Every structure is written in structure tokens, then in C-alpha cells.
């Protein structure tokens, strides 16, 4: 009986020079002979591909690329060098455990770096990259957006005629897992980076190294932070001063958090009332006699009302008589655009989330933004006590992400396959033992050179302006530093600089703050 024979083209054995036909017996023999070799080669190919992919997707421990450009600020040409790079975070043994991405702008027609101010810039979150102030506020380029901050196409950037680069060099820093910054040593405990005090500790060491590398110890130095970045820089100025002996001329808090300054129930809730009044004024939800007033005039009335009437009423709680409760609810409704009924139903304590949902509910079924209550949106259902999403934040994400990816690759020439994390994975975040606001006050008392400026948007419901004022009162509880503390308010939201008018004003306020806080040569750091 003849064996069945199958003809197969041989193309897998290098020992054979052609694709001649062979029997199944020879095929099996050759297959067994070459199987181990084939598997080994295949495995090497796979591993090689994986290694290459991993190398491409990892941030370099140390790198930098320099480009030059110029911008016209206040009608004058300002040439500058931009350095986009990475610098490591080290552990106690001196081994790199993370690498932080930064962008450093230096004016190039200034030779005296000793007198040239340096601004060190952070955003917040926690978990937010430095992109927000980098591409929309103080840097030499800004987003392509309209005059009120809404995204427009084509995406990209344009020159910033209001940048502070004319008076100060600036470095924007992305903390671990934000932007292009990443953990390198994967077994490093997450608590090394992700917590109020650990964040401050490793960033202080990083800043110390950066200032040394770029030879800026002699320069007047400033820290600026936005949102949670204010918690960060309030702690950093104290950490750098007390642990690294690096002293600063100024701290700028943009839309500040509570920074650990104590306020509870009635105090914080009463402090929201000026923000409620400002928002209702913007949406024309107030009675005609209030609506006709200028915003500054209105707030001058509502701020004392919040402190002198709303706070005591809230503090009394159930001790309020029916007539007192009805009277204060009537006035609260008058200044907020909410109904007296809704205020009474909430026992006078109106959460911000309810306000964002309620203010325009009956009028047009719209919600308002948390971070900027000028923005409006709408939910799946008009009912409920809180909105589905923040229409302000979703609009901003729309504008920022494409612009930075275009800018980093095409202008800064920083090439990577990493995703630029607008918001990175940094949770759980350890919020225990926060004293940053008090630490800032202590640093100011220790350093007579140190000045503070707070910038807030009147329509910011995430970090409202009146609670920011309250913080300054308790950073300086005895009032002896009033001449070194400035508060600036703007008719916009959390990112007040997105509105063209406030972009110009807020940058000029920083410019003036820097000029004010510069020290004359030979002036001693002492109290008179």
C-alpha cells in the first residue's frame, strides 16, 4: 500500500536553496529540527519590539533641547531662548527615581542675570500639568482662543503681547505623572510623590538643583501657583527657605485653595455669598436695583452682609427664631438670585453644587460652570441638586490639549511618544497635616523681603475670591504685613487670564508686583 504524500513548498529552511516539493516525512523532520531555532528567533523579535516600544515611551532621565525666538511685549522686541528638557528627582542614595519635564524661558539680550528676576511656575490639581499658565497666562505664547476664552479652530498658539518675559525669566515645571514627567524607578513608594508634604519636599529639592544648574542663586526669585498650585508654592517657599536656605522676594497665589487655614461650616458657607451675588449679577438674575449697580459697588455691599449678617445667622442654626430665619432668608435671596424657598429648604446653607444647578433652572433650564460661572451648559435632566459636568472645564480641555502637542513638537522641538498628561494619575493623594497657609505666613515673618499677591476671579466657584481674601487675613492675623500683601480681583473665573481684558490686567499686576518687591542694592533684610 502506498503512503499518501503531500507536496509542500519549503520556504522556512535556509539550508534549502529553492522551494522544491518534498514529502510529509521530510517536512516533519525539518520542522522538528528547526522548531527550537524558529521559536528563539521569533521570541527575540517580539522582545526587541517590546524593548524598542518601551524605550520610546519612557521619558529620558536628563535631556534638553534649546530653541530661540522673540516676542513683542508692550511694543518692545524681547528675544529669548526656550529650553525644553527633563531633570531627575533623586532618592537618598543619589539614584534617579523620577524625571520632571520643564520649559525654561530666558531673555537673551540681558547680560546681568544677578539682578534679573526668576519666576518658578506651577499649576495644581493635584495632578495637573503646568500647561495652563504656560500656554495661556505668563509665557511668550498663548492659546488661539476668542476674547472670552472659548476655543476656536484651527488649534494652536499665538504671540502673547502681555507676557511677563520682559521683566522676568520663567520656568514651568510639571510634577511627577503630569505633563511628560514620569516615575523612573517603578518600585518607589507612591507616597514619595503623592501627598501635600511629600510633593513639597521632593519639588523643593528639584528646584534647588535647577536654580544651581542655571546659576540663578543671585537672582530675585518668585513662586507662582494656581489652584492646588497655591498649596504647593505656599509650602515650597517655607521648605526652600528653611531646608535649602533659598529666600524669595515674592509668592503669587492665583485662585488659591484654603491652604489648610481653618474655616468650618458656617464660616466657609457664609464666605460663598459674595461669589453667589457676583454670579447672579453676571447672569442678570438680581433685582433691578442691584442689577443696575457696577460689580465692585455690589460686592462692597454683599461682603459686609456675608460677614456681619449671614455668618451669625448660620452659626445660630436651630436657635434662630422663625422671624429671624425668614428675614435673613429674604435678604439672602435678594443678593443671590435664588428663591427664599430653596434657601429655607437648605437651612440657609447653600452648597456650591446646588447653586450651579439651581440659579438658572427655572429661567432656561441651564447649569453654570464651577470653575467659571460665566459658562453655561445643560444636563440630561433639569431636575436634581447638582450638575452632570462642568461646562467651563470641558471647554478648556478642548482648547489646551491640541495646542500644547502642536507647540511642544513644532516649536519647542521636544519629540516624544509619551502622552502629555493634562491631568495625571496621582491618587491617592495624602492630604493629612496640611499647614501650608500658616507656613507661608511664618516664612513672610521670617523674611522681610517676602511679598504676597493673591489673584482671584469673581466668577470662580471652585476657589472663590472671598474665601481667598479670608485666607490673607489669617496668613497675617495681626495685620503687621498689610503693606506686603496685595489682593487683585478680575471679572472672570478660575483662569482669569483666558479673558483677553483680564490677561492684560493680570500680567500687568504681576509686572508691578515684581517691581514693587525688588530690593535696592545694599538694603538690609530687617524690620525697622
From TrEMBL:
MF-aspect GO terms: serine-type carboxypeptidase activity
Any GO BP annotation: proteolysis
UniProt entry tagged with the keyword Glycosyltransferase: no
Coiled coil segments of this chain: none
Statement: the UniProt record of this protein carries the keyword Signal: yes
Pfam families documented for this protein: Peptidase_S10
Keywords attached to this entry: Carboxypeptidase, Glycoprotein, Hydrolase, Protease, Signal
Protein name: Carboxypeptidase C (Cathepsin A)
Amino acid at each position: 500500500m502506498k503512503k499518501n504524500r503531500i507536496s509542500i513548498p519549503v520556504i522556512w529552511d535556509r539550508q534549502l536553496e529553492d522551494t522544491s516539493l518534498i514529502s510529509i516525512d521530510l517536512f516533519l523532520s525539518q520542522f522538528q529540527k528547526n522548531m527550537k531555532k524558529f521559536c528563539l528567533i521569533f521570541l527575540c523579535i517580539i522582545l526587541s519590539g517590546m524593548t524598542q516600544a518601551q524605550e520610546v515611551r519612557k521619558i529620558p532621565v536628563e535631556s534638553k533641547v534649546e530653541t530661540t525666538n522673540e516676542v513683542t511685549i508692550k511694543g518692545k522686541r524681547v528675544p529669548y531662548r526656550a529650553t525644553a528638557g527633563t531633570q531627575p528627582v533623586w532618592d537618598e542614595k543619589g539614584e534617579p527615581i523620577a524625571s520632571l519635564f520643564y520649559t525654561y524661558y530666558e531673555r537673551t539680550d540681558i547680560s546681568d542675570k544677578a539682578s534679573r528676576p526668576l519666576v518658578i511656575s506651577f499649576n495644581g490639581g493635584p495632578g495637573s500639568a503646568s500647561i495652563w499658565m504656560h500656554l495661556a497666562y505668563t509665557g511668550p505664547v498663548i492659546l488661539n482662543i476668542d476674547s472670552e476664552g472659548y476655543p476656536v479652530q484651527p488649534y494652536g498658539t499665538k504671540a502673547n503681547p502681555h507676557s511677563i518675559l520682559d521683566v522676568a525669566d520663567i520656568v514651568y515645571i510639571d510634577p511627577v505623572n503630569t505633563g511628560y514627567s514620569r516615575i523612573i524607578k517603578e518600585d518607589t513608594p507612591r507616597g514619595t510623590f503623592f501627598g501635600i508634604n511629600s510633593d513639597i519636599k521632593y519639588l523643593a529639592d528639584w528646584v534647588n538643583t535647577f536654580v544651581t544648574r542655571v546659576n540663578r542663586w543671585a537672582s530675585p526669585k518668585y513662586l507662582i501657583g494656581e489652584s492646588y498650585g497655591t498649596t504647593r508654592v505656599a509650602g515650597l517657599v517655607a521648605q526652600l527657605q528653611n531646608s535649602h536656605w533659598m529666600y524669595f522676594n515674592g509668592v503669587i497665589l492665583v485662585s488659591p485653595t484654603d491652604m489648610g487655614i481653618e474655616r468650618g461650616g458656617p464660616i466657609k458657607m457664609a464666605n460663598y455669598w459674595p461669589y453667589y451675588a457676583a454670579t447672579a449679577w453676571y447672569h442678570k438674575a438680581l433685582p433691578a436695583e442691584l442689577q443696575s449697580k457696577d460689580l465692585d459697588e455690589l460686592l462692597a455691599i454683599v461682603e459686609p452682609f456675608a460677614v456681619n449678617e449671614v455668618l451669625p445667622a448660620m452659626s445660630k442654626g436651630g436657635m434662630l427664631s422663625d422671624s429671624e430665619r425668614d428675614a435673613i432668608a429674604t435678604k439672602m435671596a435678594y443678593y443671590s438670585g435664588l428663591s427664599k424657598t430653596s434657601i429655607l429648604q437648605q437651612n440657609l446653607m447653600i452648597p456650591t453644587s446646588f447653586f450651579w444647578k439651581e440659579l438658572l433652572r427655572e429661567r432656561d433650564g441651564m447649569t453654570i460652570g464651577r470653575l467659571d460661572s460665566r459658562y453655561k451648559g445643560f444636563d440630561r435632566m433639569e431636575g436634581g441638586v447638582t450638575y452632570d459636568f462642568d461646562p467651563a472645564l470641558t471647554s478648556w480641555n478642548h482648547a489646551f490639549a491640541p495646542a500644547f502637542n502642536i507647540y511642544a513638537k513644532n516649536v519647542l522641538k521636544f519629540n516624544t511618544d509619551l502622552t502629555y498628561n493634562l491631568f495625571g494619575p496621582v491618587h491617592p493623594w495624602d492630604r493629612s497635616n496640611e499647614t501650608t497657609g500658616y507656613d507661608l505666613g511664618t516664612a513672610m515673618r521670617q523674611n522681610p523681603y517676602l511679598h504676597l499677591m493673591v489673584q482671584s476671579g469673581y466668577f470662580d466657584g471652585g476657589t472663590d475670591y472671598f474665601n481667598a481674601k479670608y485666607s490673607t487675613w489669617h496668613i497675617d492675623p495681626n495685620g503687621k504685613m498689610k503693606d506686603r500683601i496685595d489682593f487683585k480681583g478680575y471679572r472672570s473665573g478660575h483662569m482669569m487670564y483666558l479673558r483677553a481684558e483680564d490677561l492684560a490686567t493680570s500680567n500687568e499686576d504681576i509686572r508691578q508686583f515684581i517691581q514693587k518687591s525688588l530690593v535696592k542694592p545694599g538694603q538690609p533684610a530687617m524690620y525697622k
